[in-house]
Amino acid sequence: xxxxxxxxxxxxxxxxxxxxxxxxxxxxxxxxxxxxxxxxxxxxxxxxxxxxxxxxxxxxxxxxxxxxxxxxxxxxxxxxxxxxxxxxxxxxxxxxxxxxxxxxxxxxxxxxxxxxxxxxxxxxxxxxxxxxxxxxxxxxxxxxxxxxxxxxxxxxxxxxxxxxxxxxxxxxxxxxxxxxxxxxxxxxxxxxxxxxxxxxxxxxxxxxxxxxxxxxxxxxxxxxxxxxxxxxxxxxxxxxxxxxxxxxxxxxxxxxxxxxxxxxxxxxxxxxxxxxxxxxxxxxxxxxxxxxxxxxxxxxxxxxxxxxxxxxxxxxxxxxxxxxxxxxxxxxxxxxxxxxxxxxxxxxxx
Length: 350
What we know:
With 350 residues, the chain is of the alpha/beta class. The chain has a single domain, classed as Metal-dependent hydrolases (TIM Barrel, Alpha-Beta Barrel), CATH 3.20.20. The protein has 11 helices and 10 strands. An 8-stranded parallel sheet has the order 1-4-5-6-7-8-9-10. α7 (197-206) packs parallel to α8 (230-244) and α9 packs across α10 (313-324). It is globular.
């Protein structure tokens, strides 16, 4: 399949969802009773609106979503006050959504049962009081932060991250901030591109007591300088995945593959892709991660709404279920719910 030259969203990494286009392809839900914890989604109201109503509508399309984890997307930061503390507003927002969900008015799923926000770890030791403020704002739901280190020399790959610092994870001041996480019982979600996985491996080895979640299969890229080199890039990515999987404190999220970053052009088609097509395209990446980390350290994620630019909620989890079909019941349970529940210490009602 050809790589997309579409500029996509202003981030450069995904396209805005088109509900009318997604509606052109509907599927019967595979294994509809299977409990699923969606450990990675965003909520925002900028450009394309995706708030609790839209999330609940997607969940209502058939899969048995029992809980979700909200992840940092610079949404609803405080408009004033000390700059360092403005991300606390995102935790307050996500916790408010969780309270709305707990009312039962948006379906049975516990939306935002876990919260991952942002703290600028370049604050060094001064990151600690901000983390403590987010713990307080989370009302028992706050589980950690994400400080994106995504960077690439090619602006087509980097997109909105083109101005981010190179080598962030190696910065001594960043590491001082990072050192504040584990003593507070917090984890770190890592978002980067595949050439940077080695830097995260070094960080994981330096902080073996800090839980690290590698988002989006480690960000394999197929655009810009990586376009037309899928087999070569896959081999490099696979070697990095196998190496970081040796770090027992690292787990991986299986998803983020419907963004434009991977280089597939499903969003340019007249009709949306089927789960069979997506499973075929994604299987090498997902299976490599599962083989390297094991089901107990891997979890399927929707990454909605970014991944919604190429497929619906029905289709994305059907694709994951197709890939997981040969696995045992215990392995499926881990991948679809238990790993996420354990990693994010979710307190779910039975």
